[in-house]
């Protein structure tokens, strides 16, 4: 990955449960489990170039 999580995640909240998650079938077949939850939170990450940023939202990486 292009970042490293530093410390703990905070302000974690549930944004979707089970059937509200589009990929729930593939998650269950790959990893098992009964009640999947999609969560969001805030954390401190260190990017590859060694800069640190707070409250950064990494949704996906662009090629």
Blueprint of the fold:
Blueprint: E1 3-17, H1 24-31, E2 37-47, E3 52-54
Description of the molecule:
The protein is mostly beta strands. It has one domain (3-54). The protein has 1 helix and 3 strands. A 3-stranded antiparallel β-sheet has the order 1-2-3, with no helix packed on it. A hairpin with a 4-residue loop joins strand 2 and strand 3 (52-54). The model has no long low-confidence stretch (mean pLDDT 77).
Rg over C-alpha atoms, rounded to the nearest angstrom: 14 Å
Order of helices and strands: EHEE
How much helical structure, as a percent, in the residues?
A: 10-25%
Mean pLDDT: 77
Structural class: mainly beta
Q: How many separate structural domains?
A: 1
Core attributes:
63 residues, mainly beta, 3-stranded antiparallel sheet, 1 helix, 3 strands, elongated
Give a short summary of the structure.
The protein is 13% helix and 46% strand. It is mostly beta strands and 63 residues long.
